[in-house]
């Protein structure tokens, strides 16, 4: 049995928000309830749930941008909400994110090359020529052309711009990328292409992923393990993806039922085994 330290570990994480509306002023809503999980090197953990399940809030906690009230979020053994700011900054370069809306994730006034260069300027001391060379290599790595560095966001399709966002995320060769609904806004063909790209990059760059989505079909294509969330809690875990069709929790079954098989004759409402 391996005793290697997890790349990421959450221990009893809790998070509350204050409710809104005229009749809910001051009311606390528990968004995350006693969540514990871990992630190893070169592993993809799928995090699924319906809207409001808390999965994106958990993603922000993992990224170090949404402080929990209690519990710990450890990345490479460093508490992301601890007092050692130098250690936190050091590990932050190994933790990147790709969001759902690629168009709002970039500055419309910046070229693709300028967007990709941002993390390099923050963490890597490269000459101008080395920056240009690195950006060109990154664009080619994600299936675009080096010349695309001069284009602005409006000159790309959604799938192409998401590739630019992925290029930016991998620019520092991080150990973990949080994919927060990263393919949800794309058409089916673009989704398939991006998922294939992410799979190839994980193998080539030895990265890990937290893949957050409501689309359980997309998550299955990329993940090694699966966590299902509802009302801020983990309600089901799956460590063997070969047993995917044997999920039992009602939320898991609802997510499965939302996926239609390719062949209409196989769309039987009473059978959730669609893969």
Automatic annotation (TrEMBL):
UniProt cross-references to Gene3D superfamilies, sorted A to Z: P-loop containing nucleotide triphosphate hydrolases
Record key words, sorted: ATP-binding, Nucleotide-binding, Transport
GO molecular function terms listed in the Swiss-Prot or TrEMBL record: ATP binding
Pfam families named among the record's database cross-references: ABC_tran
Domain ABC transporter residues, every copy: 8-256
Nucleotide-binding found in the keyword field: yes
Superkingdom: Bacteria
InterPro entries per UniProt: AAA+_ATPase, ABC_transp_ATP-bind, ABC_transporter-like_ATP-bd, ABC_transporter-like_CS, P-loop_NTPase
CDD domains referenced in this protein's UniProt entry, alphabetically: ABC_NikE_OppD_transporters (cd03257)
Xref: PROSITE patterns: ABC_TRANSPORTER_1 (PS00211), ABC_TRANSPORTER_2 (PS50893)
Alphabetical list of PANTHER family matching this protein: ABC TRANSPORTER, ATP-BINDING PROTEIN (PTHR43776:SF8), TRANSPORT ATP-BINDING PROTEIN (PTHR43776)
Protein name: Glutathione import ATP-binding protein GsiA
Gene field: gsiA
């Amino acid at each position: 049995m391996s005793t290697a330290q997890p790349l990421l570990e959450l221990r009893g994480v809790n998070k509350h928000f204050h409710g809104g509306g005229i009749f809910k002023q001051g009311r606390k809503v528990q968004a995350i309830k006693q969540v514990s999980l871990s992630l190893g090197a070169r592993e993809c953990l799928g995090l699924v749930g319906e809207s409001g399940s808390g999965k994106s809030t958990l993603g922000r906690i993992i990224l170090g941008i949404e402080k929990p009230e209690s519990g710990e979020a450890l990345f490479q053994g460093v508490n992301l909400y601890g007092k050692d700011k130098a250690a936190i900054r050091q590990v932050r370069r190994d933790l990147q994110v790709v969001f759902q809306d690629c168009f709002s994730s970039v500055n419309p006034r910046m070229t693709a090359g300028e967007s990709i260069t941002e993390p390099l300027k923050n963490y890597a001391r490269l000459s101008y020529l080395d920056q240009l060379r690195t950006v060109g290599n990154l664009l080619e790595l994600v299936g675009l052309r080096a010349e695309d560095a001069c284009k602005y966001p409006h000159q790309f399709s959604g799938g192409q711009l998401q590739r630019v966002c992925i290029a930016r995320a991998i620019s520092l060769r991080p150990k973990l990328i949080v994919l927060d609904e990263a393919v949800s806004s794309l058409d089916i063909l673009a989704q398939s292409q991006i998922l294939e790209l992410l799979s190839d990059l994980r193998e080539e760059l030895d990265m890990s992923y937290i893949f957050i989505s409501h689309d359980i079909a997309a998550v299955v294509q990329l993940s090694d393990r699966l966590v299902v969330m509802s009302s801020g809690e983990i309600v089901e875990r799956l460590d063997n993806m070969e047993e995917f069709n044997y999920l039992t929790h009602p939320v898991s079954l609802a997510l499965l039922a939302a996926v239609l098989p390719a062949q209409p004759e196989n769309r039987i409402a009473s059978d959730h085994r669609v893969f």
